[in-house]
């Protein structure tokens, strides 16, 4: 179905794309006149400093090239166009590449399509004359830099004869070593001539992890193929669909609806089949409070479960690269309304009370992914930064969970808890992700509230509340005083796994803190006494304070801690006793 959707995308959205053409970057242009003579003894540079010293991106004839020598028409690498190698190439191979390119030009000029084409004839005259050897080579040119040929100011690869000749040339190359093969195409379902290899490439810049331009399907060695076969023997695709698959894939990956955060190993692109301007991933990734409120208010109104078959369909493709091959990490195709319901559940399950009165209750997906990285005291490490300590696929894992309404992988929760413990930092974003990990996509009846849950009898949750209260008592008692090491600084990290020791020490110290409060703020001292009594009373009799907790309990402890702090921030006494700058700052 993925291949069919890519062909459909190419047909409906690209329309008049030239077959077997791809975008690539060119840094040099070779200008010729109609007699095949160079207009200059040097190449014309196409590099633009305003484009960060990048070359010009052009759509040119191109096919997949793996380990063999295969020339592209009228625009290719320097080693092909002019036979220029460098320290990374072998002279014999460079000569092979150049000879293949010159041979292809001659074949074009003598073909029925190119015989009457003055541009094809001009390029052929250039190579027949031997003038290529007289061109001055710039010092900075390398064997893999692109050179495009122009004749009389017109790119040779855009000549009228190119499409017909190049299509026939690709068919002869990709039809197999023993002649053309016909069969039933698995994409279009028609009996047609089949390709031996996919004719198009995807630029490596679009595929995280790829070191070369990549192919979606490539079986050039027996070890890669089913039943030790090479080529596409077991993946029958016709020439038309093979080209459309590559064209559609490049268009999808380079569209504005594509995300590849720096340092993450996946690119996700999406599109919608049908007439709609909705963009569910944009809503996920921005989570504007007004937009989320409007979305949640309307998503459940009047939409039947048995939607008509011609409704809008949401498609999402997540890919990564390995050298010159593409790995499909995720493919989603489902009714758009179902995606919307799943996103509504995502926002519902991440809603969290803020530790600050003006904080937000829903968070952008990019911010949730960012919060899994290292905390530097005033910000999170950027995506891809050195020492970010962030999983390389966490963004894609969260996005997939949101779209599919599946559980957050346990490894993400374990990593998050570990980062909170090491950083000594729990804020609204991390708390929202904790709640998602405990609730989203789960089939258990366990309820995790977005706000303080006074009746919750979970021992770990109440232990977290108690720790937050003890922290608040110390802050209130020492208001205005400078403390080198606070209670939170000393015990927060250890309390996440073993709250008993931290709470026993805190309860002992709280007597002195409360004594001071009774002299300066007696009403506040009474409030805290009552709160502590209520929290400890909710711990089930006989269980006591836990000395060691599993991963779920650690998450519950942190949520209880966060809820209690948020409760104080929003209460009438909040400004006077908010936890402030502690080891677990908000």
From TrEMBL:
<dbReference type="Pfam" id="PF09709">
    <property type="entry name" value="Cas_Csd1"/>
</dbReference>
<feature type="region of interest" description="Disordered">
    <location>
        <begin position="563"/>
        <end position="586"/>
    </location>
</feature>
<dbReference type="InterPro" id="IPR010144">
    <property type="entry name" value="CRISPR-assoc_prot_Csd1-typ"/>
</dbReference>
<protein>
    <submittedName>
        <fullName>CRISPR-associated Csd1 family protein</fullName>
    </submittedName>
</protein>
<feature type="compositionally biased region" description="Polar residues">
    <location>
        <begin position="569"/>
        <end position="586"/>
    </location>
</feature>
